[in-house]
Amino acid sequence: MGEFHDRTGPFAGFKAVQKEAWSLFTPMEVFTTPAAAKLVGFAGVAAGQRLLDVGCGTGVVAITAARRGAKVRGLDLSPVLIERAREHAQLANLDVAFVDGDAESLPYGDNEFDVVLSQFGHMFAPRPDVAIGEMLRVLKPGGTIAFSTWPPHLYVGRMFAMIGRHLPLPEGVASPVLWGDPKIVAERLAGKAKDVSFEMDMITPSALSPQHFRRTMEATIGPLIKLVAQYKDEPDRLKSFRAEFEALISEYFDAGQNVMRQQFLMTKARKV
Question: Which of 41, 79, 120, 167 is deepest in the core (most CB within 10 A)?
């Protein structure tokens, strides 16, 4: 069992920045709530199961699972998002134990859970092998691990790659979108999990224009908030980044429906 926060490790600074950057993510829960129901359904969550939601954010997966009768715990790096998750649980009169903590150092015992889920969460841990090792450690043999991630070749994956060109990840930090490649997921689970299966689905955030959606993203997505702040004294660079970003958004903006087409990958497997 690890400490809640690794304040001294090689990635402590990176995690501190992430913790702050993602604190403004709450408005996006409008879009991630339907996806949460898809993940919970895909994982086959049932009443009475002990379940952990890793990188739980505002608790959309945790609360959806708790409504099914699972005994749920949720963990996230951001205390701001955890506070929001607690409010949501209270509102629905559900008993979910939320803590702020680190996906690379889960404060739970071995083989403690029947199900471990993560929706667009564990993928941001800097060391994939450490994060998946921890998620599988706390999962009992035969238990289900399932997660939703963003494929590298679609909108969100391409957005993170674009951000990375302007704001490179620190050395040793893996790109989060590699978790959206089924081949890499299969390699990372090899020998540790079996019966790996994949499914694609889509969320459709509403938007009035590519510019409108860019503004929404710049106000809520951690790395984008940081990038815009970095360019605040360089108006030309900010302008050219925004033009590039809006061009990418335009490829996935459905003007006839006023929505974005954001496809995601769901993975599930059973611990060996």
Answer: 120
Q: Tokens 């224009």 identify what position?
A: 209
For 11-31, b/e burial (b = at least 16 CB within 10 A) is beebbeebbebbbbbbebbeb
pLDDT digits (tens, 9 = 90+) for 92-112: 999 999 999 999 999 999 999
Contacts 24+ apart (CB under 8 A), 92-99: 92/63, 92/66, 92/67, 94/63, 94/66, 94/67, 95/66, 96/59, 96/62, 96/63, 96/66, 96/72, 97/72, 97/73, 98/56, 98/59, 98/62, 98/73, 98/74, 99/4, 99/73, 99/74, 99/75
Cα(118)–Cα(135) distance, rounded to whole angstroms?
9
Could you read off the pLDDT of 42-52 as tens digits, one per residue? 999 999 999 99
**Verdict on whether the full-model pTM lies above 0.90:** yes
